[in-house]
């Protein structure tokens, strides 16, 4: 896990460059205007500031397809190179047109960083700390802004500040980022799996998690290649195998799942008839039901899951840590071919050499990711049949925990096809224990409950499950039993180009949430405030007051902006702590009202004459509160959500669509603010932003679910289920 943290920190160096660039152009534009005599050419001035936004918008439009084709890491390398080159060109810039070219290249790098870093971190981070790690870009971006403002403030105190040097300093950290991206950052295991590079994906996962046992998570990544369209919610009762009243009936029960744990434990999970969804008996459901049919069913669905977990976050489970693995014994062996694309060149010899040297190879640990049937796998099956735990080559139980208390299991099932013959396939089960304590009988279970046989006084545990058809299965079936499905090539688990997934109900539902939250984030005004903070403070009059200490008004504005940026850092640190505890949705619902209050106070204060000092302090404090609360939630959460809610095969394209929305709205805000400032004033601008924030709170309450602590693949399955429920609700 330390590996994932270090890799995430290295990836967010790109956000330092982004924050540095945003602050530098905001502080240096006044010096650029003087040198190139742009006082009478406001169009060129606005173009210098917004050129990077325009180019970021252009590169974002094609970054999704590039990310799905080339991978996430190459785009980060490319962004570092573009930042480095643009800094050198800005240092040279003999005229305004060369400067515009440099800003164009700079924007290309910015667009790639903003789009790819959240996706990259989401795909390498464990579910339990994914929110924390994905808040790092906000923290490092603000840190870059603070460092840049400090540099510009220091240069502003000199006799002849050089805007070229201000902008060119960007090349130094970008060179460091280039080295890190080339030599330290790995490609994400999810992208590697999508291309069939399983051996490399296994090595990256082992490095990121700090353990050799990554079979369960690797299996999860392959399952995530498909987009669930037949997933259902089911309730299971888990009990020790020796406590089943009629073990013979349990053995032949086609719906029961055998679970194997450490120390020879053997449990049976049996579905409860008549309970095909999670129990929505919480206060959240009752409150949301009063807003029906306006509240998205997906919001209630996610909320019910998280309310069953401890307040400290989805970091543990009371039951599943006791299990080493979770497999069904009633299965059929599928033919395993040499599907690892990157190993085709060494077909057989390299593989045999690894085995001969007793090197750990997860391809031997689980039939799901096996390249060929081995004696070890047959031995695993024999142990499973005896009720003993499934173990790896070292005798350790194979772990299929996939994070957040969820576990992955498979069940071979057969149903009659259209031609009358039996069709066999693997059922994939994402299972997670309910909060009801072990050794107590769930309230809805009785000895006469249909579909399940339970003895009095036994130990039973309630579990929730997402059940669907496995993405992995081979058409060639042999007679050998096994404990899980196999696949010829993971890259073939889901066919078709990535854009074809945009028409899936769950993906369309996720796009509505992602695009909506990104649009509202930008129209809340943050981009305009960031780019024009010095001008806003000067308009409010605070800079003139500070200049009494002996520095110019321009320098005092830069100093105040640097201090305000510094104060946002502890707020973002608090958000990092709460992101995986309180959750994304809760932070949004809790901080957006503070934004509204700060903006309303700012508007009202402009209509009351309380003296020069007070009238200058009120907007300054309001902007500060706005900054701090925004960066706690509304800043990082939309990017985090968009990086979590899309399936692997369409994630790059979908995140590009959401980022494209962000940049377009960013351009609109950047151009509109200086135009509106003379006409409606600061109070009118912030009044508009307050209205947008009110709309944002309503949108979050009705449509944004809580995704903390859940594996990405489970989140996408929930969106598929939620989309079906929403469609059914509209049809009623």
Quick summary:
This protein has helices at residues 2-11, 13-36, 42-70, 72-92, 96-124, 130-156, 163-168, 171-183, 189-194, 198-209, 215-223, 247-252, 283-289, 297-307, 349-356, 375-385, 505-523, 526-531, 533-540, 542-546, 553-578, 584-605, 612-634, 637-644, 648-703, 712-731; strands at 232-240, 257-260, 266-271, 401-403, 406-416, 422-433, 461-469. With 732 residues, it is of the alpha+beta class.
Share of residues in helices: 55-70%
**CATH topology descriptor of the largest domain:** Growth Hormone, Chain: A
Q: What shape does the CA trace take? A: globular
Order of strands, main sheet, comes to 2-3-1-7-6-5-4
Number of helices: 26
Compute the number of strand runs.
7
Report the CATH architecture of the largest domain.
Up-down Bundle
Mean pLDDT: 75
CATH classification, class level of the largest domain: Mainly Alpha
- Detail the poorly predicted runs: 247-252, 278-290, 310-399, 436-457, 474-484
Overall domain count: 2
Q: What summary fits the major beta sheet?
A: 7 strands, antiparallel
Distance between the termini: 47 Å
- According to CATH, the homologous superfamily of the largest domain is MFS general substrate transporter like domains
In terms of DSSP E residues, the strand content is 5-15%
Taking all Cα atoms into account, the compactness measure Rg is 28 Å
The assigned structural class equals: alpha+beta
């Amino acid at each position: 896990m330390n590996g994932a943290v270090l890799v995430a920190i290295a990836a967010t160096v790109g956000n330092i460059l982004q924050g540095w660039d945003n602050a530098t152009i905001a502080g240096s534009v006044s010096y650029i205007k003087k040198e190139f005599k742009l006082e009478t050419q406001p169009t060129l001035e606005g173009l210098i500031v917004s050129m990077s936004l325009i180019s970021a918008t252009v590169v974002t439009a094609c970054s999704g397809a590039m990310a799905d084709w080339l991978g996430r890491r190459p785009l980060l390398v490319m962004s570092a190179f573009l930042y480095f080159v643009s800094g050198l060109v800005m240092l040279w810039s003999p005229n305004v047109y060369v400067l515009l070219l440099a800003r164009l290249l700079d924007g290309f790098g910015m667009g790639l960083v903003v789009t790819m870093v959240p996706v990259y971190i989401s795909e390498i981070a464990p579910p339990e700390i994914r929110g924390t790690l994905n808040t790092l870009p906000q923290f490092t971006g603000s840190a870059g802004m603070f460092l840049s403002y400090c540099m510009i403030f220091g240069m502003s105190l000199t006799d002849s500040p050089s805007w070229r040097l201000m902008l060119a300093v960007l090349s130094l950290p970008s060179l460091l980022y280039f080295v890190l991206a080339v030599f330290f950052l790995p490609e994400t295991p999810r992208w590697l799996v999508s291309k069939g590079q399983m051996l490399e994906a296994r090595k990256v996962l082992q490095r990121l998690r700090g353990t050799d046992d990554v079979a369960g998570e690797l299996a999860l990544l392959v399952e995530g290649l498909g987009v669930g369209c037949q997933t259902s919610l089911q309730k299971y009762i888990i009990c020790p195998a020796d406590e089943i009243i009629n073990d013979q009936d349990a053995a032949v029960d086609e719906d029961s799942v055998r679970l194997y744990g450490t120390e020879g434990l053997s449990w049976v999970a049996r579905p409860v008839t008549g309970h095909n969804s999670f129990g929505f008996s919480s206060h959240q459901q009752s409150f949301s039901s009063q807003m029906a049919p306006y509240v998205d069913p997906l919001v209630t669905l996610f909320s019910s899951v998280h309310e069953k977990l401890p307040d400290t976050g989805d970091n543990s489970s009371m039951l599943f840590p006791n299990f080493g693995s979770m497999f069904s014994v009633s299965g059929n062996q599928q033919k395993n071919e040499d599907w690892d694309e990157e190993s085709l060149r060494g077909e057989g010899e390299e593989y045999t050499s690894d085995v001969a040297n007793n090197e750990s190879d997860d391809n031997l640990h689980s039939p799901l990711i096996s390249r060929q049937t081995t004696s070890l796998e047959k031995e695993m099956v024999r142990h499973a049949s005896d009720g003993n735990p499934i173990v790896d080559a070292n005798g350790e139980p194979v772990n299929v925990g996939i994070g957040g208390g969820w576990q992955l299991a498979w069940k071979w099932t057969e149903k009659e096809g259209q031609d009358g013959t039996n069709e066999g396939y693997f059922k994939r089960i994402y299972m997670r224990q309910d909060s009801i304590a072990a050794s107590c009988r769930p309230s809805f279970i009785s000895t006469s409950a249909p579909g399940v046989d339970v003895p009095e006084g036994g130990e039973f545990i309630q579990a929730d499950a997402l059940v669907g058809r496995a993405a992995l299965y081979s058409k060639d079936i042999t007679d050998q039993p096994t404990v899980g499905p196999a696949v010829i090539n993971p890259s073939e688990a889901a066919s078709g180009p990535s854009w074809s997934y945009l028409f899936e109900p769950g993906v369309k539902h996720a796009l509505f949430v992602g695009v909506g939250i990104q649009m509202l984030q930008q129209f809340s005004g943050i981009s305009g405030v960031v780019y024009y903070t010095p001008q806003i403070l000067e308009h409010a009059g605070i800079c003139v007051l500070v200049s009494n200490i002996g520095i110019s008004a321009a320098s005092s504005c830069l100093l105040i902006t640097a201090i305000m940026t510094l104060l946002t850092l502890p707020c973002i640190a608090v958000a990092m702590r709460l992101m995986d505890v309180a959750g994304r949705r809760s932070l949004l619902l809790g901080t957006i009202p503070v934004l509204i209050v700060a903006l309303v106070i700012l508007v009202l204060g402009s209509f009351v004459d309380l003296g020069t000092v007070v009238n200058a302090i009120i907007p300054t404090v309001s902007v500060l509160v706005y900054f701090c609360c925004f960066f706690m939630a509304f800043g990082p959460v939309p990017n985090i959500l968009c990086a979590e809610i899309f399936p692997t095969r369409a994630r790059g394209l979908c995140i590009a669509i959401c980022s494209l929305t962000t940049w377009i709205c960013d351009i609109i805000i950047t151009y509109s603010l200086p135009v509106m400032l003379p006409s409606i004033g600061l109070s009118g601008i912030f009044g508009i932003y307050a209205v947008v924030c009110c709309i944002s709170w309503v949108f979050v309450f009705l449509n944004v679910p809580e995704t903390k602590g859940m594996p990405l693949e489970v989140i996408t399955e929930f969106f598929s289920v939620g989309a079906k429920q929403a469609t059914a609700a509209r049809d009623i």
